[in-house]
């Protein structure tokens, strides 16, 4: 065990012994290190003004990803390389190609959001230099700019891609050296304190199990895309906090099922979703912005128990299961059985989600829908997952789950019954659209009224029918987006 938080900041080592559970990366950068290019806009991971790159070790090597510094806790940076806009420079020491392109194409006006946009585009430039407009738009989902209308920014991104220079970039040239330094920082549990606050970073999953047995009431923090707001918006005490974003990263396909460690992020799972559940890929890219998908984990989205979590409706329709662990004991349950009622899940003190198992169901007709006020980077008002089996024109099995319609993600059992055994035909889906009204008693809140939610739920059955019966109908806008 060590009492020191260790990471790299713009290539230089940092070692801290006094770190609180609620200390954010943004405050450390701006207040402690005076790296004020990283801005605070929304303090909730929505606007992207605070975007930085975080490099972390994976099985495939060192990976740099844009993240939101405002809701990223400092303790979660152990063994990582944090890169801010101040670290960017071109081969001659002047502007980086991304920065030069933003100047040439008038991509900045007031300038407040510009550093975050530059860092998001830098992450894209490093990993996908040939990105087209659709990929650039996805990369900018988590960056809000109220001045430019984005067209100059997209032109700048395209121009930077054409300019090239990735091989000569500092982060590419120093990759092996940085990876070796980060590797040397790992391997021990880290315990930190600042005043009354405590932060614990387990060495591995076995160590996590031991920590939670000793601290069953601790706040478990993976990507902090929700817990971060507990601190920045509600000033909640999260101590003691156990940081697990570096753990449970296994992702594989086995016997027709995707098996994901609970610490796999949305971004890490995206390629598996694209390749094995392609009908859900567009939905997957609408979970937060890019920065949020780089931080948020599938296991935490489940364990959080939110009735508007993005992944449970889809995963429940597919028949997903989860593995829960406490100490050395494990148990496997259906995901839908995990949610008991609002704020209550089938999880004992000291128990945690260790793995998520998702059947791919290649022969089924699958769809996932997210209804929100903004298309990108917004919280869900209504989410739905559809998974139907059809044989000889008859619906033999119907699994439909909604989020935002009840206190938990919940299957539409009445609508399922209205479809099962019926012809795959318009009238069957009209009957299901009528039946779904009896499945839920939604609430009204600032995201949507109860009447709106009921109307949307019914209309999603009609939308599914149109998409599945006549694929050429323009019932949704598609973006040709690569991995």
From TrEMBL:
The keyword Nucleus does not apply. Residues 55-216 form the Cytochrome c domain. InterPro entries: 2Fe-2S-bd (IPR002888), 2Fe-2S-bd_dom_sf (IPR036884), 2Fe-2S_ferredoxin-like_sf (IPR036010), 2Fe-2S_ferredoxin-type (IPR001041), 2Fe2S_fd_BS (IPR006058), Ald_Oxase/xanthine_DH-like (IPR016208), Beta-grasp_dom_sf (IPR012675), CO_DH_flav_C (IPR005107). PROSITE patterns: 2FE2S_FER_1, 2FE2S_FER_2, CYTC, FAD_PCMH. Residues 192-363 form the FAD-binding PCMH-type domain. It holds the Pfam family Fer2_2. Residues 3-88 form the 2Fe-2S ferredoxin-type domain. Its EC number is 1.17.1.4. One of its GO terms (molecular function) is electron transfer activity. This is Xanthine dehydrogenase small subunit. The gene is xdhA.
């Amino acid at each position: 065990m060590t009492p020191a938080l260790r990471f790299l900041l713009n290539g230089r080592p940092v070692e801290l012994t006094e770190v609180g559970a609620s200390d954010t990366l943004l405050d450390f950068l701006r207040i402690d290190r005076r790296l004020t290019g990283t801005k605070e806009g929304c303090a909730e991971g929505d606007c992207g003004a605070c975007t930085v790159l975080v490099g972390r070790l994976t099985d495939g090597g060192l990976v740099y990803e844009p993240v939101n510094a405002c809701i990223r806790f400092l303790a979660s940076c152990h063994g990582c390389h944090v890169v801010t806009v101040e670290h960017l420079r071109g081969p001659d020491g002047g502007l980086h190609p991304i920065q030069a392109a933003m100047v040439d194409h008038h991509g900045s006006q007031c300038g407040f959001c510009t550093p975050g946009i530059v860092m998001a585009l830098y992450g894209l430039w490093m990993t996908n230099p040939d990105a087209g407009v659709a990929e650039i738009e996805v990369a900018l989902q988590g960056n809000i700019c109220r001045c430019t209308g984005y067209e100059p920014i997209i032109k700048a991104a395209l121009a930077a891609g054409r300019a090239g220079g990735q091989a000569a970039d500092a982060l590419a040239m120093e990759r092996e050296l940085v990876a070796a330094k980060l590797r040397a920082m790992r391997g021990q549990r880290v315990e930190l304190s600042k005043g009354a606050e405590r932060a614990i970073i387990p060495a591995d999953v076995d160590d996590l199990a031991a920590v939670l047995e000793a601290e069953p009431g601790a706040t478990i923090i993976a990507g902090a895309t929700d817990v971060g707001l507990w601190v920045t918006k509600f000033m909640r005490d999260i101590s003691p906090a156990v940081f697990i974003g570096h753990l449970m990263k296994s992702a594989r396909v086995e016997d027709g099922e995707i098996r994901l460690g609970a610490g796999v992020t949305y971004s890490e799972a995206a390629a598996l979703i694209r390749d094995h559940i392609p009908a859900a890929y567009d939905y997957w890219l609408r979970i937060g912005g890019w920065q949020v998908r780089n931080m948020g984990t599938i296991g935490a989205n489940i364990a959080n128990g939110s009735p508007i979590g993005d992944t449970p409706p889809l995963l429940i329709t597919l028949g997903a299961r989860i593995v829960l662990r406490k100490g050395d004991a494990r148990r496997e349950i259906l995901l839908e059985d995990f949610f008991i009622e609002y704020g209550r899940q089938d999880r004992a003190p000291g128990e945690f989600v260790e793995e998520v198992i998702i059947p791919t169901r290649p022969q089924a007709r699958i769809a996932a829908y997210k209804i929100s006020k903004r298309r990108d980077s917004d919280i869900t008002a209504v989410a739905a997952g559809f998974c139907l089996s059809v044989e000889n024109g008859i619906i033999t099995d119907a699994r439909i789950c909604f989020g935002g319609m009840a206190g938990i993600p919940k299957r539409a059992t009445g609508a399922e019954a209205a479809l099962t055994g019926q012809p795959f035909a318009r009238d069957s889906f009209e009957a299901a659209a009528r039946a779904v009204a009896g499945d839920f008693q939604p609430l009204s809140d600032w995201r949507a009224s109860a009447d709106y939610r009921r109307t949307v739920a019914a209309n999603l059955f009609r939308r599914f029918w149109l998409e599945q019966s006549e694929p050429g109908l323009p019932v949704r806008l598609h973006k040709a987006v690569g991995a």
